[in-house]
Every structure is written in structure tokens, then in C-alpha cells.
Amino acid sequence: MMMKISLILLGLITVISITSCNKVKDSTPQQGNTELSFNILPGKSATGLKVSDCFNTKANYVNVTIDGALYKIDVFYINNVPYTNTIKLAPGLHVIQDFLMYNDNMTPSVPGDDYVMAAAVHTGALYSDLVTNLLNKNVTIEAFKKNVQTIDLVCYEEAHYSDFGFEYFTLDQTVIREQNFFGDFCIKNVADYAGSPYALQANGVQLDMPALFKIELWQNGMLTQTYDNAAWHGEGQPLKVTYADNLGQVDNYILKLFILVRQGTAFNYVHFYDWTFADAAAIPAGTDGVVDFALGNCVPDADLVIPPWMNLPLTATYQITGNYAPGSKGGYVDATLTNIGTGYEFGNSTVASWCADHAVNITVGQVYNMDVYSSLYPTLLPAYAQSDKWAKINWLMNHLDWFPGNHWYDIQGAMWLCDTPAWGGAAESGMPALTPMMTDMKTKMDLYGPAYKVPPGGWATVIFIPTGTSSSTHTPVLQTMFIKIDP
Fold it and tell me: Tens of pLDDT along 120-179?
């Protein structure tokens, strides 16, 4: 079992300089040594259920290094708040170089088993970017005045995590938190990623390989940090995302996941998913302490499975050409697609196409400028096109062998039965009336389709929506057309 170091940000430490209470016999103040003490305000538990283990027992003393000299100062408690006894320092500029809080392990005469409960963070140290007041810290002590300084402490705990295949440290979820991420990327064609950063991995490009990704950390609506795993090519360790929580207020977080994929012939980071949570909440990480995801369906038991990436153009022109009902390519119509760049899943060509809206018109021969959508991401579609019918249609396209002797009209009729409102079954627009096979297809689509995930090597539909259609549009102005490809 590997060990981890867990960090918990404590509260603020106030440095107070006070004067002696002795009566002064001379009317002229004498600027002798000034007393210095520390008031320690521990942080709250992040879980909300119990005080952090760091504070289940009381501190006994602190070791403070000031100007190179070590001071051991006893700690006492009033109303469960820790304070230190005083030390005397000469007025002037001093440097606090170290500050560590100890527990004597209930053996005050045996210093060898004492342990550090908390320590201040030095400039440039790990997590120094997550705290405000760092060491070394200059402090000006003035005689006969209160001198208030602030220092942030970090609390140390041990915890155990199961082995995910890497050695790593992680943070307990309190004020300074950490979550760890690892991803799989499932592709269908190794050649597509030749020459990409994935080729730098130890085993080169594979059908299932560690994902190269980055995560943007958004806190309370502000982008605060971006993390990525490019330095180690995505393999050998997880990506650690650390962030600070402000005690006493609600902090809302969004972790935006971007994965390196092919777009056309380029390789870009594309936004795929957002994790949202607040304060002490954590993203589900299974039993291994690592949030693992898969882009594609080759790792079905990952904590997050993202549908396969389809390398699609953003736009294309769409035109129904030649014959329809049926088309010559085996679909309801033939569609000629143009104005498509190179390197995508499909290019400029004439292909079999289908329609999803039986009661909406489209004009044969007219050229339409279209936005291109993957049916695997239906929530990105305009409101009118968002439906579980896409999962059902994808199921049907991958199970046509269940229906021996099917015809193009059986397939199109089953799709129209998934429309809202559903097709009534009367012959129209070149379609014959309802057939028993259409009904059988629709029954099985309803049974197996809603939760269907397209497997590697399966078929998925690509949807064409008029360019500029708002995501909030609830009524189509043009028949929704689609084709099928191997994603």
C-alpha cells in the first residue's frame, strides 16, 4: 500500500507584539525587548462531519525560527483556540523563517516521537501558489505597539489509496484539495493519429491509448488555472488538479475537460465535459482515488464514459440530388455533400441519406448550408432535435441483421414512427403504408435503443441542421436530414 501526504490549509495566524505590564519608573520609555506571541486559529473540517484529524488532539508547542534562531514556544488553549506563550524580541526588522506546530504524542519527556501537525509554506514550495502569506516573512516589531502579522499554515496527514498503477501524492479535501485524473482514448484508425503527440507515447499510437488532455479550473465563475499531462505524454501518472477552498464561504467549481483529438488534419484540444461541484464535494473516483474517463466505448467501466469522437466538419452544404424514395445509394434520398475540407470522417460525395421529420418539408435540388452534428452528442442539437430517437436510430442502424429481408422503406418508416408526433402510417412522400416490419423495428428500438451506446466499429448517424439555427429553437423550419458513418 502506498502512502500519501494530505494537506489541509489552516486558518490564519496572527502575530501580536505586546508591551510589558510592569510599571515604568522613568517618564522616558525604554525600548527594550518586546514580547511576541502567536494566536493560532485552526481551520474548519471540510467534510462538515468532524474536525480534521489534525485537530482531534491538541498541539503542545511550536518551533519558530526567527533570524536564524530557534524558539520552542509552549501552546495553551482557551475555548479550544490555541495560543502560544510569549517570547521577547528587540524592536526592529525580523525574519520568520520557519513555523512548525507539534504534538508531543503524550510523551513530553520523549521528543523523539513528537510529530508535526502543521507548518507554514515557503515561497516557491509545492502549493505555495495556493496560499497568500509565505515564508520567509519580514516582520517589523515596534516597541509599545501591537504588531499584527498573518501567516498561513498547512496541516499534514497520512492516508492510504489503492494502487492505480502509478505512484502519486494526493490531497485530503479540505481547504487545499486535489483530485487526480486519467483518461483512455479509443480510436478506430491508428493511421489517423500518426505524427500526432500520441505517437510519442511508449507504445506509440494504439486503438486504446492514454488520453492527452487538459483541465481548466473555474472557481466562482473565474478561470484560475489550467492543468495538462503533455509533459509526460499522458502516461505513467495521473494529472493532479489542485485548488484552494475559502473557508466561511461557498466556493463553486467547474472542471472543464479538453481532450486532444483530430479535427480535419489538425490535432486540437476539444471541450468534452464539465464536472461541477462545491466546497468539500468530490468527483466520484471509484475505489482507486483516480477519476478515470474514456473517450469512446472501449473502457465501459470507467468513472466517466464519453461517446466516441467523430471527426466531423463544422459545416457543409447539403443537396438532395437524383432519385428519392428510394435513392440510388440505398437510403430514402441521395444527398450530395460539398464544401467539406480534408481529413474528416466524410468528404465531398453523394451518399445515402434519411429524414427524421415526416411532417416538415425539404426541397429536392435546393442547396442548403448546414451545421453538422454528431448524434452521439444529442444535447448539443437545437431544442427541437434533442431526443432519444437518435440512440434508437443508431441501434437500428447497427442491428439491421435482426430484420432479414428489410427494405429502405421499412427503415425509414421505423424512423418516422419515432418522430413527435409519430407518423400515422399512411402512404406519403414516396413511402408505402405501414408494414409489419416497421412495427417490429419500432418495438425493438423502444426496447433496446434508449440507452444504446455505439460500440467500436459500429455505425452512428450524422445530423444536418440549417446553419445559424439557435440552440433554443423548438420548431424545425427544414426537415432534419442525416447520414450514417462509422465513428
Answer: 778 887 667 766 778 888 888 776 555 556 666 666 443 333 444 333 333 333 467 889
Closest CA to 296 of 359, 206, 362: 206
Q: pLDDT, tens digit, for every residue of 384-428?
A: 999 889 999 999 999 999 999 999 999 999 999 999 899 999 999
Instruction: Write down the CATH number for the domain with range 2-21+31-158.
Output: 2.60.40
Domain layout of the chain by residue ranges: 2-21+31-158, 173-306, 315-485
Distances in whole angstroms, Cα of residue 465 to Cα of each of 325, 362, 485: 21, 12, 17
Q: Has this prediction a pTM greater than 0.85?
A: no
The dihedral region occupied by 221, where left means phi > 0, alpha psi between -120 and 50, and beta the remainder, is left
Residues in the chain: 487
* Integer Cα distance of 295 and 291 in angstroms: 13
Q: Respond yes or no on whether the N-terminal peptide bond of residue 33 is cis (omega within 30° of 0).
A: no
